[in-house]
Amino acid sequence: MFFDSRTTDAFLDALIEALPYGWNGSCTEPQLADSEQEKLRLGDLARDARAWEKFLRPGEATGPGARLLLDLGDVDVRYGAVIGQLSGPGEASSLFIYSPGGLADDQGEFLRLPHASTPGEVAHSLCRLARAADRRAVEKHLQEAAADGRHPVGWFPGERIIVFDLESTGRNPDTDRIVEAGWLLADHRALAWDSVLIDPGVPIPEGAYNIHSIDDMLVREDGVRPCDALDALTSTLAKQITDGATLVIFNRTYDLPLLDAECRRHDLPTLADRLGGPVRIVDPMRISQQTRRRQNSHTLADLAVLYSTGNLAAHSALSDCLATWDVLADSCRNDSKTITRLALKQGIDRPDEPLTVRHLLACSNVW
């Protein structure tokens, strides 16, 4: 195989095809070494990942730690490299070096992928790096929110909220499985949070992978048993709700039915069973649909771009919890009068009274 731009473009095209939606990439012309001195220069560059960034196109940047070193052992050139940029949703971005000679990396700044790695194997490594980068970014936002307060005191008319979000193999509670779940407890600050990858025991369809970037290999490597994860999750939700938190779910018709179905599938008490009665949910999607009718889209990704300063647009459970908190906070601040008026449709009198949790619950149930 001759080492030229056609070779790298073909590999890059195959890699983009193997990655979930939202990724794109570009690469330079090959940096060839036709002398021992040039070989040493490329070797020195490989020891300093930052030096490669000068080859990127204007405006391209890479995140720390998201670097790949690909080895092409069957290339018909003694020394050389192609430098490229891969960008995905959220914080995901990677600088990669596509090389025929096993370039040195004494600093350990690259994830070295072995010779003959397939595009699918590289895609898995990229997604794993991207999820780790997103997790670090979400943790940073939440730690800042815990220290300084993300929203003004009193933005929510109750004690606190617990936001719940999940990612799954699909949208049918009867047949699909949860692959990730996250929750966030907050008042005006972030108080506590967690997320967990779950091995569903069934293949993850390509359509689901394209949304959340979780593949079969990732849940096999890092996922926990569904029974253990679901029991811990529903116990946490039930305890916080019992202690006064209001449950917040973006699109309650999806997440809670799937959680209930999974609990029953593993012979666990559902959230309603643990609470001893119906589950009351504030749904920011339904509230947005009612109060912002002129808005074209009410998906969390689109609303987060508008209303979440920490939005990562990454479709991980914890980042979606963070975005849901921000979207609800904006509705409470800017749409309170509309929310109280809409609550009349559910039989709540005195629309002129200050916003209450009761109004938010009622507006969440307006069809």
Protein topology:
Blueprint: H1 5-18, E1 24-27, E2 31-33, H2 36-47, H3 49-52, E3 67-71, E4 79-87, E5 93-99, E6 111-113, H4 119-148, E7 160-168, E8 178-186, E9 190-197, H5 206-212, H6 216-222, H7 226-242, E10 245-248, H8 252-265, H9 271-275, E11 281-282, H10 284-291, H11 300-307, H12 317-334, H13 336-342, H14 357-364
Parallel strand pairs: 3-5, 3-6, 7-10, 10-11
Antiparallel strand pairs: 1-4, 2-4, 4-5, 7-8, 8-9
Helix pairs in contact: 1-4, 10-12, 11-12
Instruction: Give the helix proportion (percent range).
Output: 40-55%
As a percent range, the share of strand residues is: 15-25%
CATH class of the largest domain: Alpha Beta
What's the shape?
elongated
Strand segment count = 11
Q: What is the H/E string?
A: HEEHHEEEEHEEEHHHEHHEHHHHH
Say what the CATH topology of the largest domain is.
Nucleotidyltransferase, domain 5
Radius of gyration: 24 Å
Task: Using brief descriptors, characterize the structure shown.
five-stranded mixed beta sheet, Nucleotidyltransferase, domain 5, alpha/beta, 367 residues, 11 strands, 14 helices, six-stranded mixed beta sheet, 2 domains
